[in-house]
């Protein structure tokens, strides 16, 4: 999937001329697309400074929701992978097409609203969309599918076997300390019964009376003790339930895909609107008033990445003295998000990355 660099530069005589100048310089390197922004309400400098930070956080959040919905789509359509991309559209358009031909949705995000209100509309619209967790980790898998009867001490009045999820980088630490996390842990009682790319599932045997204390100290060491009791009858009943759920899943497949399709589209559209808000706010902070800048998209590839970066630096190096040394910033001594070298790499122009590899793991 494509990657785009969303940039902005001050208008020359007009914003259109800024676009035309960059387009001519990028001939043979990259197409250049205008990102058309409506006349948004600027507000006060203090508001813009606060919004810059809030929009950065919102950008990360909405992107994460969008990616989770994309991953869910892949998981749900595991038997129809060839049809995943046709269900990952933005308002019926392919994602690249939506980005390069972006049009502000005034029905969802009325431009008469303040920038703060627009930000809150997007944030509230995503706060309840999804509470996704990672797939596959032993901390989320059904434990009954990963263990056997012989992994446990059963029918003991005093002893119990616990299951512990251990991050792979902490395997050695686990072996060194598990029997010392509390008294009454049986030495050499831990065995690995399952692992994936990130975690391992270990057994450990200890006295029932110290289980709570063991859980507490394990958590301090980043080890997660899972609540699990080995019960053959319950496990068998669970397997029957899984069979029923598999049957139900086939019935629910259509409605679930439709739900994912609608919510993915809404989430992706909101994400690109956040990018548009960010480029507007940062451009006003960077270039000042009256509003006179052009937001543009370029499309780098592995082959052209460095050449495009060098060309942008050449085109806009004259802006370097206008950003940090601006009297407005020096006088207020503000730490402007997006303008601080300590926070991210600095460019003389406003820069944001848009990566559409939403189903990459």
TrEMBL record:
GO CC, alphabetical: lysosomal membrane; vacuolar proton-transporting V-type ATPase, V1 domain
GO molecular function term, any single one: proton-transporting ATPase activity, rotational mechanism
Top-rank taxon, per record: Eukaryota
Keyword Ion transport attached: yes
Keyword entries, A-Z: Hydrogen ion transport, Ion transport, Transport
UniProt cross-references to Pfam families, sorted A to Z: V-ATPase_C
Gene3D superfamilies referenced in this protein's UniProt entry, alphabetically: 3.30.70.100, subunit c (vma5p) of the yeast v-atpase, domain 2, Vacuolar atp synthase subunit c, domain 1
CDD domains: V-ATPase_C (cd14785)
Keyword Chaperone: no
Recorded family membership: Belongs to the V-ATPase C subunit family.
Subunit structure: V-ATPase is a heteromultimeric enzyme made up of two complexes: the ATP-hydrolytic V1 complex and the proton translocation V0 complex. The V1 complex consists of three catalytic AB heterodimers that form a heterohexamer, three peripheral stalks each consisting of EG heterodimers, one central rotor including subunits D and F, and the regulatory subunits C and H. The proton translocation complex V0 consists of the proton transport subunit a, a ring of proteolipid subunits c9c'', rotary subunit d, subunits e and f, and two accessory subunits.
Its biological purpose: Subunit of the V1 complex of vacuolar(H+)-ATPase (V-ATPase), a multisubunit enzyme composed of a peripheral complex (V1) that hydrolyzes ATP and a membrane integral complex (V0) that translocates protons. V-ATPase is responsible for acidifying and maintaining the pH of intracellular compartments and in some cell types, is targeted to the plasma membrane, where it is responsible for acidifying the extracellular environment. Subunit C is necessary for the assembly of the catalytic sector of the enzyme and is likely to have a specific function in its catalytic activity.
Protein name: V-type proton ATPase subunit C
